[in-house]
């Protein structure tokens, strides 16, 4: 047989050229386990944000029910973060090596138990100044513990088994559905706030106050029933999902368990072979590697400031809108010449409204001597302290309740809500890129820990102190405190609305504005890093091309 020629050596064989068909890329099934997990996680995100938002919308009602100051209410709100940080680092580190879907399901059930335990305090409260608020504090902390595994384990599970190009899309879909939670949470809070706290036990017709009154306490406990039921439903699907999945696009690969077993073993080892002592040994080195990543550390600082602003705004936003858009703009002084013979108590709070739009603390301080009607329809007459447009002698009357805002405040409220929606939209644009930077700027095995530490630091430095110092500054604007039966200070009845607005908006703006300095530093750092990688990639490409040119003559010419 003759030896093959040079042309035959360089020409591909017919078997190479024709006999091996190109395999089509497998299509993603419409109902894969990963997509079912994403749907279940989306509902869990919706449920947890609904319950969290409802808790914040009920803060004002809890403040009035237990006669608390804003700083103590801020402490109750911060108990969620306290419970969350107790287990966050542990769950993020150990949970990535255990059955993540079931841990998420357990978290949903634990949050549902918290909601039920919070409701049980209703049967124990006999007096407005009861110390049973401590159980609300503990129940909210339990909700924080239950929420611990959802974000770090859920995001890392998606990123582990989804295609790299699909991760950002799935996470953005998750965040989009999450936005529905606060909307329904505030709607639920608004509905419950318009129902009296003892609904079913007290005749509504016998009440002399309305939901606009500072003494009104809404049915705050009712929304916890709804939240608890939704959380139970959200936790059920996770018990039927697998511990690990083939990476998206490889579902039809029969050799997945053989080929990919070693690859996934580091991230997801078998539960029976996991030794907690071995995992624990790697915790501190992993934490050191994580915090020594400059981009991650700077992003963490920016997130803490941004989260502090967000938590303070969300916690007291309902109170802010009530004070700025729900009460009268003008108020009258306490003791004066017109009521000095009435023996009025300055600690009494039973507001009445005059036709001139001025709210008085009580009928006595308004100088009223007679009244007609009963219940909500009571009208007081011959009020000597009431100011009228023209000082005409005769009957001057006031009605129960604080004076409503005028049309100008309605227009201001519309503008405020428009700005709020626009700012929320702008802020939401950075959520998905923030997640992607977090999980892309560190190595694969640190993803769950990175997300967990990020949430831990947010809760510790932002979530816990922010409601407390926001509440303390809001308390400094109080004009009239309720006096408890034992003589102590209760909840605030009236705020200086102008000072309230300046402090509240200035604090949120300063915290949010400072966070952008760190975000800009992260962008500059990543741009430099990407330029270095591009230069390195170009150098490697040029080197390979040179090697190919040098080897090609040897391949095509015989010795």
Note poorly predicted spans: 6-21, 254-274, 328-332
Strand order of the largest sheet: 1-3-2-6-5-4
* Overall mean pLDDT: 76
Q: How is the biggest beta sheet arranged?
A: 6 strands, mixed
Helix/strand/pairing category: mainly alpha
Instruction: Indicate the percent of residues in helices.
Output: 55-70%
**What share of the residues does DSSP label as strand, in percent?**
5-15%
Shape: elongated
Order of helices and strands: HHHHHHHHHHHHHHHHEEEEEEHHHHEEH
How far apart are the first and last residues' alpha carbons, in Å? Answer: 19 Å
Q: Total number of β-strand segments?
A: 8
Task: Indicate the radius of gyration in whole angstroms.
Answer: 32 Å
Number of separate helices: 21
Characterise this structure.
By secondary structure, this protein is mainly alpha-helical. The chain is built from 21 helices and eight strands. Strands 1-3-2-6-5-4 form a six-stranded mixed sheet, with no helix packed on it. It starts with 5 loop residues before the first helix and ends with a helix. Mean pLDDT is 76; it is low at 6-21, 254-274 and 328-332.
